[in-house]
Amino acid sequence: MQELVNAVRGTGATNVIVLGGVAYASHLSQWLTYRPTDPTGNLAAAWHIYNFSGCNTEACWDAEAGPVAAQVPLIGGEIGQNNCAHDFIDRLMDWHDAHGAGYLGWTWNTWDCGSGPALISNYDGTPTNFGVGFKSRLLGGGASLSLSPLASPTPLSTPPSGSTVTDDLDNFGKMGTHSANLAFDTTNTSAIGGDPARHRRRPRAPRPHRALGGVGRLGLAGAALLHSDDLRLER
User: Fold this and answer.
1) What is the pTM of this model?
2) Structural domain for 13, as ranges
3) pLDDT tens for residues 159-195?
4) What is the distance between the alpha carbons of residues 85 and 160, in angstroms, rounded to a whole number?
5) Could you count the other beta carbons within 10 Å of the beta carbon of residue 208?
6) Number of neighbours of residue 62 by Cβ within 10 angstroms
7) Which of 99, 138, 155, 211 has its CA 20 to 30 A from that of 202?
8) For residue 11, what is the domain's CATH number?
9) In what order do the strands lie in the sheet with 43-50?
10) Which band of pLDDT confidence, cut at 50, 70 and 90, is reported for residue 115?
């Protein structure tokens, strides 16, 4: 794991690095023993737990993952069960919630549950019982959550009178001609607007990193955005 961390940090990246356990990421008993050194302190541990995986009892969770969760953020990168129920993940999510850990359901696939965990039975989002239990927890409700069909999308409004819709997106001159509501600087044809400085990374003073804690229902993607110094939005 140290080589991996060194390689990532060697690029200058300061984002969160998520490091899994062994045996298909189901065991964390040696994670702290071999915990790598990270100059940013931006490490998280991950495991994949199912009703059919290793370490699938509360006793194992307490023994192996509990000490890890007490020192670094812990993320259930994959959780699930292969019988289209949610009794197992209910207990697992209870454990994660009690330890301030996050979790992600696996998988968004229409398997028959016997082939593997399946959150949905149809790609329109119809959930299996496993999916109902997982979504219910994310919404803060109980296992008996009733899911409504997806609402039909709202049609786009009709363009106002006098305007022209055009798909000439690669020709600024035509766009300016077609629409009285649009104005373009057609004298600047540079791919990045003639101002390379806008696309140049500007140095920033170093700032202390916030500890990545309580990922919880925010999820890994949200945590990575909150704790990454490598992302910057500019107007």
Assistant:
1) 0.60
2) 2-146+210-226
3) 455 544 444 444 444 444 444 444 444 454 444 444 4
4) 51
5) 6
6) 12
7) 211
8) 3.20.20.80
9) 17-20, 43-50, 74-80, 102-105
10) confident
